[in-house]
Amino acid sequence: MLDEQTLPPPASPDEELAPHRLLAGVRAGTPFAIAGALLAVSFGVVAQDAGLSQAAAIAMSAIVFAGSAQFAAIAILGQGGALGAAIVAAGLMNSRFLAMSIALAPSVRGRWPWRALQGQAIVDASWAMAARPDGTFDRATLFGATAVQYVAWVAGTVVGALGGGFLTNPDRYGLDAIYPAFFLALLLVELRSHRARGVAAAGALIALALVPFAPPGVPILAASVAAFAGLTRNARAETAATLESAR
Protein backbone atom coordinates (compact mmCIF):
# COMPACT_ATOMS: atom_id res chain seq x y z
CA MET A 1 0.00 0.00 0.00
CA LEU A 2 1.06 3.59 -0.53
CA ASP A 3 2.41 5.58 2.35
CA GLU A 4 2.20 9.35 2.10
CA GLN A 5 5.52 9.57 3.96
CA THR A 6 7.28 7.93 0.98
CA LEU A 7 6.20 10.72 -1.36
CA PRO A 8 8.13 13.99 -1.64
CA PRO A 9 6.70 16.96 0.30
CA PRO A 10 5.31 19.95 -1.62
CA ALA A 11 7.95 22.19 -3.20
CA SER A 12 8.16 25.57 -4.85
CA PRO A 13 7.56 25.72 -8.64
CA ASP A 14 11.31 26.05 -9.25
CA GLU A 15 12.13 22.92 -7.21
CA GLU A 16 9.09 20.84 -8.11
CA LEU A 17 10.76 18.97 -10.98
CA ALA A 18 14.23 18.67 -9.45
CA PRO A 19 15.92 15.32 -10.26
CA HIS A 20 15.68 14.00 -6.70
CA ARG A 21 11.95 14.65 -6.66
CA LEU A 22 11.44 12.88 -9.98
CA LEU A 23 13.41 9.91 -8.64
CA ALA A 24 11.12 9.85 -5.61
CA GLY A 25 8.20 9.59 -8.04
CA VAL A 26 9.95 6.72 -9.83
CA ARG A 27 10.38 4.87 -6.53
CA ALA A 28 6.73 5.43 -5.65
CA GLY A 29 5.59 4.08 -9.01
CA THR A 30 7.87 1.04 -9.12
CA PRO A 31 5.49 -1.40 -7.34
CA PHE A 32 2.76 -0.54 -9.83
CA ALA A 33 5.26 -0.81 -12.68
CA ILE A 34 6.11 -4.38 -11.65
CA ALA A 35 2.43 -5.34 -11.59
CA GLY A 36 1.89 -3.57 -14.91
CA ALA A 37 4.79 -5.42 -16.53
CA LEU A 38 3.28 -8.78 -15.58
CA LEU A 39 -0.09 -7.70 -16.94
CA ALA A 40 1.55 -6.43 -20.13
CA VAL A 41 3.07 -9.88 -20.68
CA SER A 42 -0.47 -11.27 -20.63
CA PHE A 43 -1.58 -8.58 -23.08
CA GLY A 44 1.24 -9.41 -25.47
CA VAL A 45 0.06 -13.01 -25.57
CA VAL A 46 -3.70 -12.45 -25.92
CA ALA A 47 -3.21 -9.68 -28.50
CA GLN A 48 -1.71 -12.22 -30.89
CA ASP A 49 -4.52 -14.65 -30.15
CA ALA A 50 -6.91 -11.87 -31.23
CA GLY A 51 -5.11 -11.50 -34.56
CA LEU A 52 -2.59 -8.71 -33.92
CA SER A 53 0.97 -9.14 -35.11
CA GLN A 54 3.88 -8.88 -32.70
CA ALA A 55 4.73 -5.41 -33.99
CA ALA A 56 1.12 -4.23 -33.76
CA ALA A 57 0.77 -5.42 -30.15
CA ILE A 58 3.98 -3.64 -29.13
CA ALA A 59 3.02 -0.47 -31.02
CA MET A 60 -0.41 -0.45 -29.38
CA SER A 61 1.15 -0.54 -25.91
CA ALA A 62 3.67 2.17 -26.82
CA ILE A 63 1.02 4.50 -28.23
CA VAL A 64 -2.12 3.77 -26.20
CA PHE A 65 -0.50 2.86 -22.85
CA ALA A 66 -3.83 2.06 -21.19
CA GLY A 67 -4.38 -1.47 -19.95
CA SER A 68 -8.16 -1.39 -19.61
CA ALA A 69 -8.65 0.19 -23.04
CA GLN A 70 -6.26 -2.21 -24.72
CA PHE A 71 -7.84 -5.30 -23.18
CA ALA A 72 -11.32 -4.03 -24.05
CA ALA A 73 -10.34 -3.54 -27.68
CA ILE A 74 -8.63 -6.92 -27.86
CA ALA A 75 -11.62 -8.68 -26.29
CA ILE A 76 -13.92 -7.28 -28.99
CA LEU A 77 -11.52 -8.05 -31.85
CA GLY A 78 -10.91 -11.54 -30.50
CA GLN A 79 -14.66 -12.25 -30.60
CA GLY A 80 -14.90 -11.14 -34.23
CA GLY A 81 -16.14 -7.63 -33.49
CA ALA A 82 -15.60 -4.69 -35.81
CA LEU A 83 -12.65 -2.34 -35.48
CA GLY A 84 -15.03 0.58 -34.88
CA ALA A 85 -16.62 -1.21 -31.93
CA ALA A 86 -13.17 -1.90 -30.47
CA ILE A 87 -12.20 1.77 -30.79
CA VAL A 88 -15.44 2.93 -29.15
CA ALA A 89 -14.99 0.50 -26.25
CA ALA A 90 -11.39 1.66 -25.74
CA GLY A 91 -12.54 5.28 -25.84
CA LEU A 92 -15.17 4.63 -23.19
CA MET A 93 -12.59 2.97 -20.99
CA ASN A 94 -10.28 5.96 -21.30
CA SER A 95 -13.03 8.55 -20.89
CA ARG A 96 -12.34 8.63 -17.16
CA PHE A 97 -9.19 10.58 -17.99
CA LEU A 98 -11.36 13.57 -18.93
CA ALA A 99 -12.41 14.10 -15.32
CA MET A 100 -8.88 13.35 -14.11
CA SER A 101 -7.45 15.90 -16.57
CA ILE A 102 -9.85 18.59 -15.40
CA ALA A 103 -8.72 18.00 -11.83
CA LEU A 104 -5.03 18.12 -12.82
CA ALA A 105 -5.27 21.18 -15.09
CA PRO A 106 -4.75 23.89 -12.41
CA SER A 107 -1.49 22.20 -11.33
CA VAL A 108 0.26 22.22 -14.72
CA ARG A 109 2.02 25.26 -16.14
CA GLY A 110 3.18 26.70 -19.46
CA ARG A 111 1.61 27.24 -22.85
CA TRP A 112 -1.13 24.90 -23.98
CA PRO A 113 1.11 22.51 -26.03
CA TRP A 114 3.34 21.94 -23.00
CA ARG A 115 0.33 21.60 -20.72
CA ALA A 116 -1.21 19.06 -23.09
CA LEU A 117 2.06 17.11 -23.16
CA GLN A 118 2.14 17.01 -19.36
CA GLY A 119 -1.38 15.63 -19.37
CA GLN A 120 -0.16 12.54 -21.22
CA ALA A 121 1.42 11.43 -17.95
CA ILE A 122 -1.99 10.76 -16.41
CA VAL A 123 -2.43 7.10 -15.54
CA ASP A 124 -4.52 5.76 -12.69
CA ALA A 125 -1.83 4.96 -10.12
CA SER A 126 0.31 8.04 -10.83
CA TRP A 127 -2.70 10.36 -10.69
CA ALA A 128 -3.80 8.89 -7.35
CA MET A 129 -0.31 9.10 -5.85
CA ALA A 130 0.28 12.66 -7.07
CA ALA A 131 -2.98 14.00 -5.59
CA ARG A 132 -2.49 16.24 -2.56
CA PRO A 133 -5.03 16.78 0.23
CA ASP A 134 -5.65 20.37 -0.95
CA GLY A 135 -6.74 19.23 -4.41
CA THR A 136 -3.49 20.09 -6.22
CA PHE A 137 -1.07 17.59 -7.77
CA ASP A 138 2.65 16.91 -7.34
CA ARG A 139 4.01 16.89 -10.89
CA ALA A 140 7.28 15.21 -9.90
CA THR A 141 5.39 12.25 -8.48
CA LEU A 142 3.12 12.15 -11.53
CA PHE A 143 5.94 12.26 -14.10
CA GLY A 144 8.33 9.95 -12.26
CA ALA A 145 5.72 7.33 -11.43
CA THR A 146 4.34 7.32 -14.97
CA ALA A 147 7.78 7.10 -16.60
CA VAL A 148 8.70 3.86 -14.82
CA GLN A 149 5.26 2.39 -15.49
CA TYR A 150 5.46 3.25 -19.19
CA VAL A 151 8.83 1.53 -19.59
CA ALA A 152 7.56 -1.53 -17.71
CA TRP A 153 4.33 -1.71 -19.74
CA VAL A 154 6.07 -1.60 -23.10
CA ALA A 155 8.80 -4.00 -21.97
CA GLY A 156 6.23 -6.46 -20.66
CA THR A 157 4.33 -6.33 -23.95
CA VAL A 158 7.55 -7.04 -25.83
CA VAL A 159 8.18 -10.11 -23.67
CA GLY A 160 4.62 -11.37 -24.12
CA ALA A 161 4.52 -10.69 -27.86
CA LEU A 162 7.91 -12.17 -28.69
CA GLY A 163 7.81 -15.00 -26.17
CA GLY A 164 4.14 -15.86 -26.43
CA GLY A 165 4.96 -19.39 -27.57
CA PHE A 166 6.28 -20.13 -24.10
CA LEU A 167 3.25 -18.64 -22.35
CA THR A 168 0.21 -19.97 -24.18
CA ASN A 169 -2.16 -19.73 -21.21
CA PRO A 170 -1.41 -16.63 -19.07
CA ASP A 171 -4.47 -17.28 -16.86
CA ARG A 172 -2.76 -20.39 -15.55
CA TYR A 173 -0.17 -18.16 -13.86
CA GLY A 174 -2.75 -15.88 -12.28
CA LEU A 175 -1.95 -12.93 -14.56
CA ASP A 176 -5.66 -12.40 -15.16
CA ALA A 177 -6.03 -11.38 -11.48
CA ILE A 178 -3.46 -8.59 -11.63
CA TYR A 179 -5.70 -5.97 -13.23
CA PRO A 180 -8.62 -6.16 -10.77
CA ALA A 181 -6.12 -6.34 -7.90
CA PHE A 182 -4.44 -3.20 -9.25
CA PHE A 183 -7.65 -1.14 -9.13
CA LEU A 184 -8.59 -2.64 -5.77
CA ALA A 185 -5.29 -1.39 -4.37
CA LEU A 186 -6.06 2.13 -5.64
CA LEU A 187 -9.53 1.97 -4.10
CA LEU A 188 -8.16 0.88 -0.72
CA VAL A 189 -5.71 3.79 -0.75
CA GLU A 190 -8.53 6.28 -1.33
CA LEU A 191 -10.63 4.64 1.40
CA ARG A 192 -7.86 5.52 3.86
CA SER A 193 -8.33 9.20 3.08
CA HIS A 194 -11.04 10.84 5.19
CA ARG A 195 -11.69 13.44 2.48
CA ALA A 196 -12.15 10.93 -0.35
CA ARG A 197 -13.51 7.92 1.54
CA GLY A 198 -17.18 8.49 0.78
CA VAL A 199 -16.54 9.47 -2.82
CA ALA A 200 -14.34 6.42 -3.47
CA ALA A 201 -16.89 4.07 -1.93
CA ALA A 202 -19.73 5.62 -3.94
CA GLY A 203 -17.76 5.32 -7.17
CA ALA A 204 -16.98 1.67 -6.48
CA LEU A 205 -20.63 0.88 -5.77
CA ILE A 206 -21.77 2.62 -8.95
CA ALA A 207 -19.29 0.65 -11.05
CA LEU A 208 -20.27 -2.66 -9.44
CA ALA A 209 -23.97 -1.97 -9.96
CA LEU A 210 -23.51 -1.23 -13.67
CA VAL A 211 -21.06 -4.01 -14.58
CA PRO A 212 -23.68 -6.79 -15.07
CA PHE A 213 -25.64 -5.02 -17.81
CA ALA A 214 -23.82 -1.87 -19.01
CA PRO A 215 -21.54 -1.89 -22.10
CA PRO A 216 -17.76 -2.05 -21.48
CA GLY A 217 -16.43 1.27 -20.26
CA VAL A 218 -19.75 2.71 -19.12
CA PRO A 219 -19.43 1.56 -15.47
CA ILE A 220 -16.02 3.15 -14.97
CA LEU A 221 -17.12 6.30 -16.83
CA ALA A 222 -20.18 6.68 -14.60
CA ALA A 223 -18.07 6.05 -11.49
CA SER A 224 -15.47 8.60 -12.62
CA VAL A 225 -18.06 11.30 -13.26
CA ALA A 226 -19.71 10.68 -9.89
CA ALA A 227 -16.35 10.68 -8.10
CA PHE A 228 -15.27 13.89 -9.81
CA ALA A 229 -18.54 15.60 -8.87
CA GLY A 230 -18.22 14.41 -5.28
CA LEU A 231 -14.62 15.57 -4.91
CA THR A 232 -15.50 18.94 -6.45
CA ARG A 233 -18.33 19.39 -3.97
CA ASN A 234 -16.06 18.42 -1.07
CA ALA A 235 -13.39 20.84 -2.23
CA ARG A 236 -15.89 23.70 -2.45
CA ALA A 237 -17.24 22.89 1.00
CA GLU A 238 -13.74 22.85 2.49
CA THR A 239 -12.86 26.14 0.78
CA ALA A 240 -16.03 27.76 2.09
CA ALA A 241 -15.30 26.46 5.61
CA THR A 242 -11.76 27.81 5.44
CA LEU A 243 -12.93 31.25 4.31
CA GLU A 244 -15.58 31.28 7.02
CA SER A 245 -13.07 30.43 9.74
CA ALA A 246 -10.71 33.14 8.50
CA ARG A 247 -13.29 35.87 9.03
Tell me the number of structural domains. Answer: 1
Q: What does the main sheet amount to?
A: none
Decide which structural class fits the backbone: mainly alpha
Unreliable runs: 1-5
> Whole-Å distance between the termini?
39 Å
Average pLDDT confidence is 77
Element order, helices and strands? HHHHHHHHHHH
Strand content: under 5%
Secondary structure tally, helices = 11
Number of strands: 0
Helix content: 55-70%
Overall morphology: globular
What is the radius of gyration?
Answer: 19 Å
Characterise the protein shown here.
The chain is mainly alpha-helical and 247 residues long. The protein has helices at 19-49, 54-64, 67-78, 83-94, 96-104, 112-119, 124-130, 139-162, 178-191, 197-210, 218-246.
Brief summary of the model shown:
The protein has one domain. Helix content is 69%, strand content 0%.
Task: Name the features.
single chain, 247 residues, mainly alpha, 0% strand, disordered N terminus
